[in-house]
Specification:
Elements (H helix, E strand, L loop, with lengths): L53 H14 L11
Length: 78
């Protein structure tokens, strides 16, 4: 997900362990931190570690690519 730099220090909707700083280091989960992951990672859903959803996400992204939708110049001027 892209998040504008002005919002990257915002408070996420979900409050779960995987959004916390250092949560990617499973060997140190007992060293829980209240601070969030840096940048847009703090806005990930708790299902980020639900790996069985990856094939669904891959197929959905492939379907969008197959549609060959042209980017809107109003949204993506580059």
């Amino acid at each position: 997900m892209y998040v504008s730099p002005r919002w990257r220090d915002g408070r996420p909707l979900e409050e779960n362990w995987i959004l916390r700083a250092g949560s990617q280091d499973f060997s140190r989960l007992v060293d829980y931190q209240d601070s969030y992951q840096p940048g847009s990672r703090r806005f990930d859903m708790g299902e980020r570690s639900n790996f069985q959803l990856m094939p669904l996400a891959r197929d959905a992204l492939q379907m969008i690519l197959d549609w060959k939708i042209e980017p809107s110049p109003k949204v993506c001027p580059h």
